[in-house]
Amino acid sequence: MEATLPLLILVLPLLMFLFLGLFGKFMSHKWAGIIGTAGMGVTMLMAYYTAYVYFFSGDFVGEDGTRLQYIVFNQDWLALWGNLTIKLGFLLDPISALMLVVITTISFMVHLYSNGYMRDHHGVWETGFQRFYAFLSLFSFSMLGLVVATNIFQMYIFWELVGASSYLLIGFYYTKPSAVSASKKAFIVTRFADLGFLIGILVLSFTTETFDFMSLTSAPVAGVENMYHVDASTARTMLETGAGQMFLGGSLMTWALVLIFMGGMGKSAMMPLHIWLPDAMEGPTPVSALIHAATMVVAGVYLVARLFPLFMINDAMGGAALDIVTVVGALTAFYAAVVACTQLDIKRVLAFSTISQIAFMMVSLGVSRPEVHDNLGYMASMFHLFTHAMFKALLFLGAGALIHAVGSNDYTAMHGLRKRMPITHITFLVGCLAIAGIIPFSGFFSKDEILTACFGNSIIAYVWMSMVAGLTAFYMFRLYYLIFWWKEHKVHEGHHAPKDQPWTMTLPLIILAVVATFAGFVPFGDLVTWNGHPHHGGINWMIASISLCVALLAIGLATIMYRKENPLPERMRHLFPNLWTWARNRFYFDELYMFITHKIIFNSICKPIAWFDRHIIDGTMDAFAAITNKASYAIRGLQSGNVQSYVWVYLIGAIVLGGGTVAVIFLFF
Amino acid sequence: MDFLNNFQLNSLMFLIPSLFMFCCGVYGFLTRRNMIAMLISLELMLNAVDMNFVVFNRFLCPGQMDGMFFTLFAIAIAAAETAVAIAIIINAYRISKDIDVKDLTKMKF
Questions:
Q1: What is the pLDDT at residue A229?
Q2: How far apart are the first and last CA of chain B?
Q3: How much is the pLDDT for B12?
Q4: Which among A182, A242, A304, A460 could disulfide-bond with A282, CB atoms 3.0 to 4.6 Å apart, if both were Cys?
Q5: How far is CA A193 from CA A186, A190, A276, A289, in A?
Q6: What distances in angstroms separate CA A351 from CA A190, A348, A410, one per listed residue?
Q7: Dist. CA A654–CA A561, nearest whole Å
Q8: Rg, chain A, Cα only
């Protein structure tokens, strides 16, 4: 494949960012929107073509039907010394091709949608509309660069770039204090996680002496075939000697992988580093759909998937990295699902639902083992990533349409909107059915694969995740009924009555609804598997019917409780008052963080440092200044302003110097 | 008139008056309060130095003209300097209606 087209996929969004960022204020809002959307549309078509060529042209399939990794280009970017060279490149393999499609699709939908969303009812554009499009392009560029990274360092660079563009977009309404603090919170929490990521990268590359994914992930495991036909002898020897060393109860490799996973936990909002994601909903809703639902937050999952062979080797060598992924994912999935059942703000419900669904993907990777249906979990995780991106973006864009129409994030201001906003209603319902896992919507297929993988690994994981799946169906339909049913909405008739939004907003909803309905029929096992071998599992009907029953039960419960106004939810709440309060307050995680940072870290670390700074460092500098000041006051009388006194001094000086010179000459010569 | 017949110029005959002139200039510059008087004292010092140049040129290296040229330059520059000084004095007078140097002590700490 020529390198031009893949390069353009990266360059075009970057150019759009520079163009809109530098010249945006000289063009009208309308044209900035059209140009931004068109640029992303072209990028999307190029990404589709690239993915099509990769999957279907047959050029990238080995003799035995294995899909091969392919490096389109890989340039030296920073040559330091020895073999420490940092490269920037473009890696095509099943998961990066998949991510190209997901990112560009969602990004294009969001670009299109924002044309309608970023103005008010009277058609007046938001302030900074061009800036918004510039940042969207920057984000798309960063995210595309992240997924096609050929080495872990390039991934880290783009990883930070997506963090920065996420920060810029969360704080888009920078005059609103809550948005500003939300953006700072997101930045600081993810940066803290990235500290772990960076240390992990250093440990890993120190023991393996390479950054390169091809050499890192192709190290073979006993009993598993060499992946992707790459010469892996170097990495393998390094791993067996260097990374096997023990340190604080774990091998260096386990430590490296756990630290790298910590970076993934921050980005993907895994407990306990999830606290930034609900607050990130302060950003405009299209941003939440693009960054905080479909693409950036799955970067953690993508990272684990990218390094999955390493995790697998670690597991085979007795390390705990994959088990940690499973446990963190399972706890997060349950926690977020419980919290989502009690939130008022519809975007927060969706945010916690996102956390829960990403945790599903993590668990799926965590339970993936070669002996369980040949790593079905890996494929299931990527499948769920794909379907989730579609239906969660759909739900978020639907929520955006509702917020835009009603002017509030709160479902108590919505109730009974189904007749007023029919398109939004139907598409939102499709999204809910997909996430709940009802056949034949896409979520059914991917969730079924995940549950099958869990079942193959351990019965506990299976029961636990099925319960979370039931909760998912419950809270999504609770939200659906509270928005569209419950009771009739009292609104002012006329111009401000909630109604369906303009075509720029409804078209993406319809497209995504269609995709969310049919995405499950994509033959995913043929396209994306951990080692490139096609995987023909098919649906496990026993597990599928059980999970379908669970979902239907949960939906039935939600229907009883929330379809019409009734006192049942109130009574349920009073039955478990503590549980309800704790869930409503997100189990006081924010308060816990506040306690740790303010009471412990500020008091025991920051205060002594501040004292040292104010008294020792500032004191030294102040002393210098005071001495200079005193000295100059003491001698300032010399400059009297009287010319003749200067002449006196000059004369005396001349006489002394002259006399001195003469005396020296007479005495010594 | 033996004295007149044996009379020969020697450098001290010029250097001593020149020194006297210079000391007068210094004394005047230090003691006079009137800025015009100070300027005159300054000119006196300059002239004393000019005389020294000429005398040393004449007695130390009679064939050359370097000292003479220095003197000419010094006279020209002294003229320009006087013009500038007079201008400053006039402006000072406009501001304070006085040219007493004791009153012009604004430029201090």
A1: 36
A2: 65
A3: 87
A4: A182
A5: 11, 5, 12, 23
A6: 16, 5, 14
A7: 105
A8: 31
Query: Is A585 in contact with A579 (CB distance < 8 Å)?
Result: no
Whether A642 and B107 lie within 8 Å, measured CB to CB: no
Residue type at position B71 = T
Three-class DSSP category at A403 = helix
If pLDDT is split at 50, 70 and 90, which confidence band does B44 have?
A: very high
Q: Considering only CB atoms, which chain A residues are within 8 Å of B106? A: 641
Token pair for A175: 């005059």
Contact residues for A383 (Cβ-Cβ < 8 A; gap 6+): A445, A446, A449, A524, A528
B30/A648 touch (CB, cutoff 8 Å), yes or no: yes
Strands A84-92, A70-81: pairing is antiparallel
Cα torsion angle, A58, A63, A64, A67, sign? negative
Interface touch B106/A641, C-beta < 8 Å: yes
Query: Which of B26, B100, B109 should one mutate to test binding to chain A, selecting the residue with the greatest count of A CBs within 10 A?
Result: B109
CA separation for the pair B30, B99 (Å, rounded): 15
Q: For position A241, what pLDDT does the model report? A: 58
CA angle A437, A395, A133 (to 5 degrees): 140
CA distance A176 to A492: 28
Interface residue B15 vs chain A (CB under 8 A): no
User: A404 with A117: CB under 8 angstroms?
Assistant: yes
Tokens of A315: 């597991």
Average pLDDT, integer, range B20-45: 93
Nearest to B30 among A637, A639, A644 (CB): A644
- For residues B34 and B21, give the distance between their C-alpha atoms in angstroms, rounded to a whole number: 19
Q: Which residues of A touch B109 (CB under 8 A)?
A: 636-637, 639
Place of tokens 């002449």: A647
How high is the pLDDT of residue A204?
A: 83
Nearest CA distance, A655 vs chain B (angstrom): 13
**What is d(CA A519, CA A393) in angstroms, rounded to the nearest whole number?**
14
Tell me what pLDDT residue A626 has.
95
Among all chains, which residue has been given the structure tokens 């490799």?
A: A253
Please give the average pLDDT of every successive group of 10 residues along chain A, which has 669 residues: 82 92 86 90 93 84 76 82 81 88 92 86 79 91 92 91 92 89 91 92 81 69 40 52 63 86 90 88 88 89 88 78 90 91 87 92 88 81 91 91 82 78 89 88 88 87 90 90 78 65 85 88 80 74 87 88 80 80 81 86 90 93 95 86 86 94 91
DSSP state for residue A567 in the 8-state scheme = S
Which residues in chain B are closer than 8 Å to A640, comparing Cβ atoms? 105, 108
The continuous run of DSSP H or E covering A91 comes out as: strand A84-92
The pLDDT assigned to A223 comes to 39
DSSP letter (8 states) at residue A84 = E
Of B26, B101, B108, the CB nearest to A639: B108
Supply angle C-alpha A630, A634, A635, rounded to 5.
125
Which residues face A486 on adjacent strands?
Answer: A564
Long-range contacts of A59-66 (CB under 8 A, 24+ apart): A59/A1, A60/A92, A62/A229, A62/A532, A64/A533, A65/A533, A65/A534, A66/A228, A66/A229, A66/A531, A66/A532, A66/A533
Q: Return the ∠ at Cα A415 (arms to A413 and A417), rounded to 5°.
A: 110
C-beta separation of A263 from A200 below 8 A: yes
Q: Which two tokens stand for residue A403?
A: 């917020």
Report in angstroms the alpha-carbon separations of B95 from A114, A639, B38, B103: 70, 22, 19, 11
User: How many contacts does A have with B, using Cβ atoms within 8 A?
Assistant: 25
Which residues of A are less than 8 Å from B29 in CB distance? 644, 647
Identity of the residue in B29, B102, B109 whose CB atom sits nearest the CB atom of A636: B109
Residues of B in contact with A644 (CB under 8 A): 29-30, 101
